[in-house]
Design goal:
The chain folds into 2 domains: about 45 residues; about 190 residues, Peptide Deformylase. It is built from 8 helices and 8 strands. Strand 6 and strand 7 form a beta hairpin. Bound molecules: zinc ion. Zinc ion binds next to helix 6.
Length: about 270
């Protein structure tokens, strides 16, 4: 799911929203440093005469490919129209979840979500029909939003986490309406009714069972991402009259309360 509208300092696309992730920057710098050091180590461990590979050289080669593989990649986010976005995704077994391939996929999805930037990304959005999504609502995404805007949406920072094979129960009926956006419908937004509270049973990135009870904006993110795993996009649930481009949303609607939006669009 998209991060939401940008306010003041973040009014332009990109920029400040993408930076400032101190911990991730440090982690990236560490991986870069390790990669360089291992690469240098490989250089000094020359191939001995006779072509036999020394065990230390083998070790350095293995370490090198491991550090290289730790560098997360930004994946391409698919747009509505791609068949995979309309298919029900497959469940993952605990063994699959713990595999190197899925662990790498999680890291790449995390990087892709930060880069977008978004608060959630489901595997079908990067072309993988798997019941897996990553979520994180960073404090900096809302630091410039008006207090009223945050309060109305009950939006709070949510730390990074992974949901796998989720099953959810709506704890309230789907009657809270706000504009939301999707990274697979780039440049658009619409009012989508969602339940204010949900309960989700899922597995985490280690394959351990988790129960999440969420309310407010976090509950909306969960519903949006879990919908993706069933081949559902927000346009299937939106108030069609409120569908619009982001630029026009920013021009006419961003600063309005939902009461005014309802009055002007839905009750017109
Ligand atoms: Zn989405």
């Amino acid at each position: 799911m998209r991060t939401g509208p940008r306010w003041q300092a973040n009014a332009n696309h990109g920029g400040a929203l993408l930076d400032g992730g101190g911990a991730e920057q440090a982690e990236k710098a560490l991986v870069d440093e390790c990669t360089t050091r291992v690469a240098n180590m490989r250089q000094t461990l020359l191939w001995p005469k006779g072509g036999r590979v020394s065990s230390r050289r083998k070790e350095a080669d293995a370490l090198y490919s491991e550090t290289l593989s730790m560098r997360a990649e930004v994946l391409k986010i698919l747009q509505a129209g791609e068949p995979v976005l309309r298919q029900r995704a497959s469940e993952l077994s605990t063994k699959e979840i713990r595999s190197r391939a899925i662990q790498k996929l999680i890291e790449n999805m995390r990087e892709t979500m930060y880069n977008a930037p978004g608060v959630g990304l489901a595997a079908p959005q990067i072309g993988r029909g798997l019941q897996l999504a990553v979520i994180e609502d960073k404090p900096e995404y809302i630091k410039d939003s008006p207090a009223e805007f945050i309060r109305e949406r009950e939006r709070q920072p949510v730390p990074f986490h992974v949901i796998i094979n989720p099953k959810f129960t709506l704890l309230e009926s789907a009657n809270v309406e706000f504009f939301e956006g999707c990274l697979s419908l780039a440049g658009f937004t619409a009012v989508v009714p969602r339940a204010r509270m949900v309960r989700v049973e899922c597995l985490n990135e280690r394959g351990e069972p988790k129960v999440i009870e969420a309310s407010g904006w976090y509950a909306r993110i969960l519903q949006h991402e879990i919908d993706h795993l069933q081949g559902t996009i927000y346009i299937d649930r939106m108030q069609p009259r409120t569908f619009m481009g982001m630029e026009l949303f920013n021009q006419y609607w961003k600063g309005k309360s939902m009461g005014e939006v309802v009055k002007q669009i839905l009750q017109a």
